[in-house]
Amino acid sequence: MGEPVRRNRLCAWKLTFIFLTLWLGASTPLLRAQTSTDQVWSQLLSQSSIALNDGYKRLNYMLGYMNTGTTTTVNWPVTMEKGRAYLIVGVCDNDCTDVDLVLQDTNRGDITSDVLADDIPVIRFTPSTADTYWIETTMVVCSVEPCGYGIAVFVR
Questions:
Q1: Global pTM exceeds 0.85
Q2: What is the CATH classification number for the domain harbouring 145?
Q3: Cis peptide leading into 146, omega within 30 of 0?
Q4: 92, 119 in Cβ contact below 8 A?
Q5: Would you give the distance in Å from CA 28 to the centre of its chain?
Q6: Range of 71's domain?
Q7: How far apart are CA 75 and CA 121, in angstroms?
Q8: CA-to-CA distance for 49 and 71, rounded, in angstroms?
């Protein structure tokens, strides 16, 4: 009678160990994603404070994830008014050291960009015509993929 009880305890320990291993292993990417998102959001808030102090108001923002060497395939459209000053700021998580932004016209031709080797690209632009413009993002360097990134558009 002692043998089945011991076998049941051993089986329960094995199941507990397997469950914890699977649960912890599966939750690691979720924890990393949450941390990455928190890092990006914190940086966007910091950049927002700087822009707001400079007289801008936030028009819109977006968050996403990319691997090294990838460019957004569906660029982000932003409707801009003639003569208004726009500030476009990109940020990325702590595993990213270089992300680039390109502003394109309605025909997807490049207008201006920030492709410096940095992790906070900034584009300042005042359109001469009201139109829909496109923001293209490229993740240049990401040490732990995918890297989180964010873009905020400000206007004054």
A1: no
A2: 2.60.120.380
A3: yes
A4: yes
A5: 19
A6: 3-155
A7: 16
A8: 28
